[in-house]
Amino acid sequence: MLLQPYRVLDLSDERGQLCGQILADLGADVVIAEPPGGSSARRIGPFRTRGDGTTPGIEDSLYWWAYNRNKRGITLDLTTMACQERLRRLVRSADVLIESFEPGYLDRLGLGYRDLSALNPRLVMVSITPFGQDGPKAGWAATDLTALAASHTLLLTGDDDRPPLRLSLPQAFLHASAEGAVGALLALAARERDGLGQHVDASAQTAAMMATQCMVLQAGWGEQVLGRMAGGLKLGPIRLRFIYPCKDGHVSVTFLFGTAIGPFTRRLMHWMYEEGFIDAATRDKDWLNYTVLLLTGQEPLSELQRCIAAIERFTLSKTKEELFHEALRRGLLIVPVSTTADLLRSEQLNARQYWTPVRHEELAEPVRYPGPFATFSATPIRYRLRAPRLGEHDAEVEREWAVVPAPATAAPHGSGTSLPLEGVKVLDFTWVMVGPIGVRYLADYGATVVHVESSTRIDTARTLQPFKNGQPGPERSGLYANVNAGKLGITLNLATAEGREVARRLAAWADVVVESFSPKAMRAWGLDYASLRAVNPRLIMMSTCLNGQTGPHAMLAGFGTMGAALAGFVELAGWPDRSPAGPFGAYTDYVAPKFIAAALLAALDHRRRTGEGQYIDLSP
Predict the structure, then answer these.
(1) Residues 6+ positions from 129 with CB-CB distance below 8 Å
(2) Strand 232-235 and strand 71-75: pairing?
(3) What is the pLDDT of residue 463?
């Protein structure tokens, strides 16, 4: 297991428990401490239905099960002196402590970071709060909803003629919890340099800002404000839809333009023409330059709306399955808006054995859980434990954690001011958003990242807003600048032997290679993991494409808007009398980067201790 040597004490409630779960899935020994009456997360539904018809209790919360697998559980009443002293004993043995109390609460008990780090200078403490540990809003009362509203994401979600919408499942603290896990791993990397722990401060407001797709930069970049439009985009007078009705539900259709996406739109129009839904003139529009035609007035907006109406008539003539399977065959950007039932019977998820049975001793049959967030070739994620029953491991943890592990024998190096990933070398073949954001974490903390582009096919991120002063251009995109900050950049044409040879030399230099092409691309270029490992046996390589590297739908090309639809997010927002609104934009591109960073950091930690590289397949 990647993080097997580490002990994590989790004091959080529902606002922070995903943080501990990520570390637990990656192999850390995570112990969640609850008050005697049980965590408030145990009172969040849905609840399993008991076979005897009795009312579900605190051991029946599916929410608790979902965010606390792979953890052991103890009870700890921090209002008593005895339990405060017990916490101090546990802290002496811990590598990481996670908490989600209001700022200052632990300090008032004499259990704040300064107090606990005096007992264990190597302790990494992760605090997850609505607005952070300091600043004018640190003490404000907040819910997941208000933290999300403060992040700017609500303003972008829903219909423009009605109030903003949130997803029906809380999201802000999940963003913060995942950021907390990445922060913990970065702090552990820093500890290897100077031998000291540190305090990681994760704010739900700032963590959720990633879900604005960099539109939070609009004012600073002098860009016009993006309007709210359910299931689509509204920029000035231009309104583009992504969600369309069909015979048995809804589908996501990426109807966009430009050199990267225009060819997909052109193929869609050819299919619609074959089926009699449009004429030849509509089929043959200049879909590569259509945005320019709209912005310059050469193409009236009424014509855009006519095309959108034709797409709706077309999708209404078919089922989700008919549209999706033909899209796979023709290479189109159409996917179903998945319901929970769709996810359970998904050909792709079942082929990848995603749904994972977990044994609950008190139940007759195993419970099916969502599967691991990534596939690791050398250290696969295992679901070792179901969520703990209240106080289940009190005696066991007390006995085991009484033995304080010896600190690492390697002498700390660095000045204490060097960044934790200095010396790590990363070759970044990713593009658009999800991969570049995930790799940016490494660049931010000192890694040398070389971002590879092609001069023959511009990165789509360069064509996305916000643009400086509202003027498009490949060097003016705030989104591109944001997700690739801190990186070096080169252009390589991997279609040539010369370009591939340079890529191989760079892979021999790198510690980490990350790519987001379709599954066949790196193999076709001789740049797949097996080939690169031959020149660099210690290499860590990650592939992150929409559906992963295996399964019947692995070759589906796509973007985070489609990922959100496939993953079931789009169904979670909207009005009963309208089509699903979904979250704003490419939602999986805002969620997956935190897991990308956590997976890479854990793999680097494992390699530091074992010398072993590996291959990671992460499907957003």
Answers:
(1) 15, 100, 102, 103, 138, 176, 201, 202, 203, 204
(2) unpaired
(3) 85
What is the chain's percent helix, strand, coil content, to nearest 5?
A: 40, 15, 45
* CB-side neighbour CA atoms (13 Å) of 4: 11
How far apart CA 90 and CA 96 sit, in angstroms, is 11
The burial of 505, by beta-carbon neighbours within 10 Å (0-12 exposed, 13-18 middle, 19 or more buried), is given as exposed
In the DSSP assignment, the letter for residue 386 is: P
Q: Is the pLDDT of residue 450 over 50?
A: yes
Q: Which pLDDT belongs to residue 410?
A: 47
Least confident of 83-92, 100-109, 153-162: 153-162
- Read off the pLDDT band of 416 (50, 70, 90): low
The rounded distance, in Å, linking the Cα atoms of 135 and 128 is 15
- Is-contact 349 336, C-beta < 8 A? no
Amino acid 584 reads F
CA–CA separation, 336 and 143 (whole Å): 32
Find residue 512's DSSP bridge partners.
Answer: 426, 540
For 12, 331, 484, 561, the CA distances from 281, given in Å and listed in that order, are 60, 22, 40, 29
Q: Rounded distance, CA 18 to CA 408, Å?
A: 27
Three-class DSSP labels, 161-178: CCCCCCCCCCCHHHHHHH
Residue 24, CA distances (Å) to 1, 19, 200 in order: 10, 9, 18
Residue 557 pLDDT? 84
In this structure, are residues 469 and 222 in contact, taking their beta carbons and an 8 Å threshold? yes
pLDDT at 346: 95
- Whether 113 and 105 have beta carbons less than 8 Å apart is answered as no
- Of residues 163 and 414, the one with the higher pLDDT is 163
Q: Cα–Cα distance between 47 and 60 in angstroms, integer?
A: 5
Residue 412 pLDDT grade (very low, low, confident, very high; cuts 50, 70, 90): low
Gap between the Cα atoms of 67 and 22, Å rounded: 9
Q: Of the given ranges (6-10, 20-24, 287-291, 330-334), which has the lowest mean pLDDT?
A: 287-291
DSSP states of 389-412: PTTTTHHHHHHHTTSPPPPPSSPP
Altogether, the residues listed in the chain come to a count of 620
d(CA 320, CA 334): 9
Q: Which residues of 80-91 are buried (b: 16+ CB within 10 A; e: fewer)?
A: eeebbebbeebb
How is the beta sheet containing 334-336 ordered, strand by strand? Answer: 243-246, 249-253, 334-336
CA distance 563 to 220: 29
Average pLDDT for 590-614: 98
- 264 near 287, Cβ under 8 Å? no
Region 119-130 average pLDDT: 98
Q: Which residues contact 355 (CB under 8 A, 6 or more apart)?
A: 344, 349, 368, 369, 370, 371
In the predicted structure, residue 358 carries a pLDDT above the cut 70: yes
Query: Does residue 301 register a pLDDT over 90?
Result: yes
Tell me the mean pLDDT in the region 532-540: 97
Cβ atoms of residues 212 and 156 within 8 Å: yes
Look up tokens 């967030």; give the residue.
Answer: 373
- Label residue 52 by pLDDT band (50, 70, 90): confident
Look at residue 518 and tell me whether its pLDDT is greater than 70. yes
Please identify which residue in the block is written with the tokens 């009795």.
54
